[in-house]
Amino acid sequence: MNDTFPCVGDDMYSLAERLFPINRSLTGDGVRQSLGILSELVTGLQVHEVPTGTSCFDWSVPKEWKIREGWIEDPNGDRIADFANCNLHVVGYSTPVDTVMGLDELQQHLYSLPEQPDAIPYVTSYYKERWGFCLTENQRRSLQPGNYRVRIDSELFDGSLTYGELKLAGDSEKEIFLSTYVCHPSMANNELSGPCVTIHLAKWLQAMTQRRYSYRIVFIPETIGSIVYLSRHHEAMRKNVVAGFNVSCVGDDRVYSYLPSRDGNTLSDRVAKHVLHHTDPDYCRYTFLDRGSDERQYCSPGIDLPVATVMRSKYGMYPEYHTSHDNLDVISPSGLQGAFNAIAECIRCIEQDCYPKSVMPCEPQLGRRGLYPDLSVKGGADSVREMMNMIAYCDGKKSLLEIAEIIDAPMSRLTTYVKKLVNASVIETQSEKF
Amino acid sequence: MNDTFPCVGDDMYSLAERLFPINRSLTGDGVRQSLGILSELVTGLQVHEVPTGTSCFDWSVPKEWKIREGWIEDPNGDRIADFANCNLHVVGYSTPVDTVMGLDELQQHLYSLPEQPDAIPYVTSYYKERWGFCLTENQRRSLQPGNYRVRIDSELFDGSLTYGELKLAGDSEKEIFLSTYVCHPSMANNELSGPCVTIHLAKWLQAMTQRRYSYRIVFIPETIGSIVYLSRHHEAMRKNVVAGFNVSCVGDDRVYSYLPSRDGNTLSDRVAKHVLHHTDPDYCRYTFLDRGSDERQYCSPGIDLPVATVMRSKYGMYPEYHTSHDNLDVISPSGLQGAFNAIAECIRCIEQDCYPKSVMPCEPQLGRRGLYPDLSVKGGADSVREMMNMIAYCDGKKSLLEIAEIIDAPMSRLTTYVKKLVNASVIETQSEKF
Amino acid sequence: MNDTFPCVGDDMYSLAERLFPINRSLTGDGVRQSLGILSELVTGLQVHEVPTGTSCFDWSVPKEWKIREGWIEDPNGDRIADFANCNLHVVGYSTPVDTVMGLDELQQHLYSLPEQPDAIPYVTSYYKERWGFCLTENQRRSLQPGNYRVRIDSELFDGSLTYGELKLAGDSEKEIFLSTYVCHPSMANNELSGPCVTIHLAKWLQAMTQRRYSYRIVFIPETIGSIVYLSRHHEAMRKNVVAGFNVSCVGDDRVYSYLPSRDGNTLSDRVAKHVLHHTDPDYCRYTFLDRGSDERQYCSPGIDLPVATVMRSKYGMYPEYHTSHDNLDVISPSGLQGAFNAIAECIRCIEQDCYPKSVMPCEPQLGRRGLYPDLSVKGGADSVREMMNMIAYCDGKKSLLEIAEIIDAPMSRLTTYVKKLVNASVIETQSEKF
């Protein structure tokens, strides 16, 4: 594996720009169109369609939703809340409507945010048939009494739910799992950052000459998509997945965040905490009680996959979340690159983890191997101290990741020592405990 | 079981008023009289008599003590420290005396509290024969030189030690154990609060239509009484008792307190901490090193019962303790009711604890069962979040109490969710791990 | 064993004065001479010689080093940096040299400490052949351009490495291990305090009429000496050593310090922390990452001995360390005695540790044995409380050391209670769990 990661911040940002205008929802052509664009970057991204009504655990695949237009015409004949201008204006999964009503009746179909008066909220109604419009609080306050024409040209029909899946074979059948979602309309951090970072991680992994683990990478609608996917694959996944990451909200520059798996101490959790500690010691730590994305399914009782989440600003915790303000200004090439690096480093730590063991009792004589200063001066040996600390714990029972935690050093640096010391026949390594 | 607890604060306080004047000691008619009054509230309270000299572990039952009168006549012929006015005036278990002596000699038989000059201390001498008087420091300082007549008309004789025992059968032979003491003369928080709360807990338990556990409830003299009781029943108790509470100092309004079992992590401890955390997060936490009541015996090596203590102001920690100031002004109906509720809630948590398990993998679809909001709005799902958090841990391996701890919610609320979700066939429960 | 320790502070200090001028190194006559002086204090100190070139794990015994004289003659013909004045002036293991050179060339062979301008540093070059001089920064700055004659009359030759070993038999084959080093020239805290305290501990142990454990006490050159010793004895030591202490930097008065074994929770660690907590609750706690002496070998993977270190000011952490300032002013009789007491107390705790068990269930009746006050007064029983706390944990499963930790009392005091209570047939003890 490479020692540094590809610089793909600009590529990820451009990809987000291209995907931004598409109207994604739980189902429908927006998802298909987005997966089509993503599949340009890698080989072998499979697109699956699951018919409406298919049963999956306690759920079934919903109807497919299609919308052609949606707007309100005010008493002056001006169009407001026009879906053509912003796809957040229509409540997701709105049923069709074409009628005229007074302002009072209309109000019951309007959604706005009094505390964020210039933001259009994002609202959906997946499981109850209704229609509605979202608009800014300021716009709503300016509405005058009178007759309003409302029109949503939409359709709910037996179609299918669409998701993408990419599998990369590795030396082992054991898998690392990545999951991201494609189901929100025009929002940047809480939608597009996920697939943009994930497809570039996939591209990076696909370019590797050797992978220790196999990879399972999915692009799904949130919640129902993960339930559908698990209903088909949970047995194989429970058997093979050694670590997994839900890739969500990975685009802005403000902070790094970590949300644990339900177990809290899986390999994914330990490696995520390790990497974030060395990326930014002040990263935000959440608990599983703060969950809100597909870890809800992946970590549910009976599924119990080791899935943790490494984010930038977490969903629900930044002001632009689930509004029209979560636009391309919120994310940046460097924000995306930071998240890419953190998750790629998590993956690299897992790929390179091993059980190192000193070949001989007592400290090795590094001096005659050119690995130790030959003069003992006060304070002189500081530069090799970290390597000596690592060797002190190479007892064949502790993994390199555990050692990295004990001596508080980044695993990326320990990996370079391991290479040197294996070459010098001072330590040997195994993938299992000695 | 009921969802709310009976309002018995006034009843408990009245009972304390009635019991207050009686002169209780380790043995004797004061104990018998008190048990007689308590037995009016429940059916089946058995009174046992254990003869003086009966051997029990390292101890033997002491002589019975009877006192008819006790006073000092000062040089002016005025009676002071008269037992008839306050039964704390005579040192407990005083031998008889009727003589005249000078002030200097008398001083060696007097007890007072320099730092609490208007309080009569409570002093006993159970295991060495002596006599003495207790009086206020102020009174003592006013004594003039001269001849004092001292008279204690008491008797130490082969009689018996008296205790009360109530057993309530439940579905299981496994028992919950309650212990309180009846051996102090006129003191309120550190004596009468215990039997008053305990007898009302017994009445509440007796009125239940169904009990999962059996109950063993004892009213005993402290220390020697618990040793006597254990010497007769410890084998059955070690086999059956799943949880127990020593009921002591449960009458005032100032604070809630918790003293752990020796083990510190028994079911009693976990449930006591849970209930007190939700009753008053600032409750006083003691350690087993602060012990001072019958948990000393119940938790001793070789006995090891899971007995924890839930109190209001702990013995030894409030200024009126073991003095005449621990009177009926210290306790109150609301103080007694607060303790009643806390211990009753502990019992209810144990009765209702179970292992809940999600019927299906992944989150259940609560929406179609009317248990989840059908519109996804920013910040909208907060009201069902706690129930979803509970479900996320219903893996069949964690008890409801453990889940309550993880999600930091009162078990009483989780119990209502469990009922709903069992009815909706979303979870199932067992009394053991799945 | 005695209840108090011998007052040997002055003896230890005098011994340090006597050993101070000797030029010790990894090998050579300085070590032999020092061991000769130490062997005057005890019977049976064996001196071993291990030939140059002997293989030991990853290392081999180095050549022996002998130095007769070493000095620089400045352009004025004045001798500076003369080994005869201070044996720190010549870099340890310097090869012979006798030549004239300019100041610029000389500078490359000089060592000084800019931040401590009046201290001569201590420098060695054990594993690369070179020569050099150490001097104060002030002296170095005063050197004028011109020709300097440098002369070191030394020799590196096939000889041997010398160490001392004392074995004391005890009732058990299980051993307590003490290790200290004799390999530094004239330095006091970081050299002589170690052998001076250790030989007096040996003398104290030898004088005991009965020892539960056997003792293995070694005086070795640091690092290579412990590696040599382990290569010969590690199998027996791994089988028998139950606790061990590296005795280093035990002479000054400033502070107490603790450095754990690699495991961190061995008997040595637990007892060291216990004793230091009761010696000075503010003692300095280091981690194994701060290690720097022979615990590096004793605790290395594949050796894993339970060796902890109890120090006064730790090597590397006090300003005089590894300079000419670490002289006899740094250490003191009281500093040495404090360390002696701490380590002796660690040993005594191990010797006296046991599993106490109450003979009967419930609390014993101490009153009738004269061990409990016979009058119950408010606050009266405080003086026996600690003993009662101990008894409360005498369940036959917890060692006296564990009980001392739980009730936060010094084990020396608990030992006196144990004696009383065993005599009173209240508890019994075993060396293993009941």
Automatic annotation (TrEMBL), chains A, B, C:
Residues 360-428 form the UCP01524 winged helix-turn-helix domain. Signal peptide: none annotated. SUPFAM superfamilies: Zn-dependent exopeptidases. Residues 13-353 form the DUF4910 domain. It comes from the Bacteria. Residues 64-155 form the DUF2172 domain. Pfam families: DUF2172, DUF4910, HTH_47. This is Polysaccharide biosynthesis protein with aminopeptidase-like domain protein. It comes from Rubripirellula amarantea. The lineage of its organism: Bacteria, Pseudomonadati, Planctomycetota, Planctomycetia, Pirellulales.
